[in-house]
Design brief:
single chain; 324 residues; alpha/beta; Quinone Oxidoreductase, Chain A, domain 1; Rossmann fold; 2 domains; 6-stranded parallel beta sheet; 15 strands; 29% helix; globular
Length: 324
């Protein structure tokens, strides 16, 4: 019988329990997927901790790759043996799972299962951010928080390849060098430097048209001070905790700023959007614009240790859970 990680009660990493599970046959529109690699993302922490409440018990995880084992009725375009990946449907921390066929993307031969599990959610998030939320152009200067994380390293590379000047905020000198090696022109070590002052200096006082912030509470308000008048604050994560409530008038006081809180799943809601985003990412990897950096690997049964490493900010790049 296959195993999975279950959460029976919201809380810390100790709530991640390795258990046998019954998977069953796929229903209409579903496939049974044997997974080979699973992506680790901060949204998994939000689900586990109860920040984003889930029915109990549940299997966390929203990204993975593997091989189709069985297809249910009314499934078109997929067959047993196909290599596929996904970003979205919860239930990923499992050796085998049922999943809606229309949320799967076929993996090309030049994209490995581990690459797919390490980049689909993060890479399509970057595609969303720099192509839809803020269409990035050559000559733009941007600030990326957590520039040495999974999303950050992909965004640094992709933005630089498009001709943008990339400023990246990181927590250590080691992460600064990693970000620099992945296209970040100006790493800022926020434990030593005032990132607002550095942005003002680097832009000769002009500040920025856009800030991409996945850190949340610790950086949100000061990130607003990095923006030009009518600049856009893109808050797409909350690794340090949720942003504290504030009066909308603050955006007016700081220069008639715009604020958005995008989530990938609203940008890949249709089959056409999903295919376009995935192909955009695959092409970026294929042409060398983006290299997927897998910084850590944990066995799926060690998911609790992986969560501890992620929450303590002791990870770089992407982290995957492997199926033994």
């Amino acid at each position: 019988m296959p195993h999975a990680i279950l959460v029976r009660q919201a809380g810390g990493p100790e709530q991640l329990s390795w258990e046998e599970v019954e998977v069953g046959d796929p229903g209409p529109g579903q496939v049974r997927l044997r997974q080979t690699a699973i992506g680790l993302n901060f949204i998994d922490v939000y689900h586990r901790s109860g920040l984003y409440p889930q029915p109990s018990p549940f299997i966390p995880g929203v990204e993975g790759a593997g091989v189709v084992e069985q297809v249910g009725p009314d499934v078109e375009g997929l067959k047993p043996g196909d290599r596929v990946g996904y970003a979205g449907p919860i239930g990923g921390y499992a050796e085998e799972r049922l999943i809606a066929a229309d949320r799967l993307v076929k993996l090309p031969d030049d994209i490995s299962d581990e690459q797919a599990a390490a980049m689909l959610l993060q890479g399509m998030t970057v595609d969303m951010l720099i192509r839809s939320v803020w269409p990035l152009h050559a000559g733009d200067t941007i600030l990326i928080h957590a520039a040495a994380g999974g999303v950050g390293l992909i965004m640094c590379q992709w933005a630089a390849a498009l001709g943008a000047t990339v400023i990246g905020a990181v927590s250590s000198d080691e992460k600064a060098e990693l970000a620099r090696a992945h296209g970040c022109h100006h790493p800022i070590v926020y434990s030593k430097q005032d990132f607002v002052a550095e942005v003002v200096h680097l832009t000769d006082g002009k500040k920025l048209p856009v800030v991409f912030d996945s850190v949340g509470r610790d950086t949100f308000v000061r990130s607003l001070d990095c923006l030009q008048k009518r600049g856009l604050m893109v808050s797409f994560g909350q690794a340090s905790g949720p942003v504290e409530p504030f009066a909308p008038g603050l955006l007016a006081q700081k220069g008639s700023l715009y604020l958005t809180r995008p989530t990938l799943f609203d940008y890949v809601a249709t089959r056409e959007e999903l295919d376009r985003s995935a192909e955009s990412l695959f092409d970026a990897v294929r042409t060398g614009k983006v290299k997927v950096d897998i910084g850590q690997r944990f066995s799926l049964s060690e998911a609790a240790e992986a969560h501890r490493a992620l929450e303590s900010r002791n990870t770089v790049g992407s982290t995957i859970l492997t199926v033994d």
